Amino acid sequence: MDFSFSIAGFMVGLLVGMSGVGGGSLMTPFLLFAGIAPAVAVGTDLLFAAVTKCGGIFAYQRERLIGWRVVGLLALGSLPAMALTIAILARLDYIGFDYQILITRTLSFSLILTAVVLLASGHLRGSAEKSNFIAAAVAWRERWTRPLTVLAGLLLGALVTLSSVGAGALGAAILVTLYPRLPMRRVVAIDLAHAVPLTALAGLGHWQLGSVDFQLLGLLLLGSLPGIMLGSRVGRYLPEQVMRTLLGIILLLMGFSLAW
Questions:
Q1: Count of domains in the chain?
Q2: Predicted TM-score of the model (pTM)
Q3: If you ran DSSP here, which 8-state letter would residue 196 be given?
């Protein structure tokens, strides 16, 4: 067994614990650079993300921060999109089409998009608050928020299933835009409650396709779980914006290197 994967899991867990995002965004590119096939990297990382984030649901639920109605609207779009994406991948595999390059390209796009969201998170939050002030006098906002949430879930479902990236930072950015009055802790709680079942079911779909390495998954979790616990403690003393900016720069470089 190569315990360097456990060390990588620890480092990713540490960063996730400190910044709150970056699990799939960091782990999948690392697995690719380590020589893991793209489909196996994505499938294994999806289950990795589901397990590492699972404990957060119970913590946030105890504080009654999860808005299950919003989670349901996101899932209404994301779960069918996830199932359809898995079905398309299974069909491509059946006819002998090599979809590894599709996964790599989607991953590079998702990394760059996630990096842009992280780097612009402060401005995005401010813009959302201003737009909410303007929209208070406009009836159409209430009328379109629910269908837009379902549509956002559909986009997340396809992106996450193909690349394992986007359930965290992109999901939070969408929620901030659509629900600007929600406190950030509630945004994170809703995003997490939606991400866990989405990544778990998508990971199981990849397992059916034969693209999950459970030995690799065990090595990653061996390092990530203590890493997250330590990172959550260290993160209390670090400026959130500094961590997100650093993470955004790393993801941007990874995204362009994969695209190249």
A1: 1
A2: 0.78
A3: H
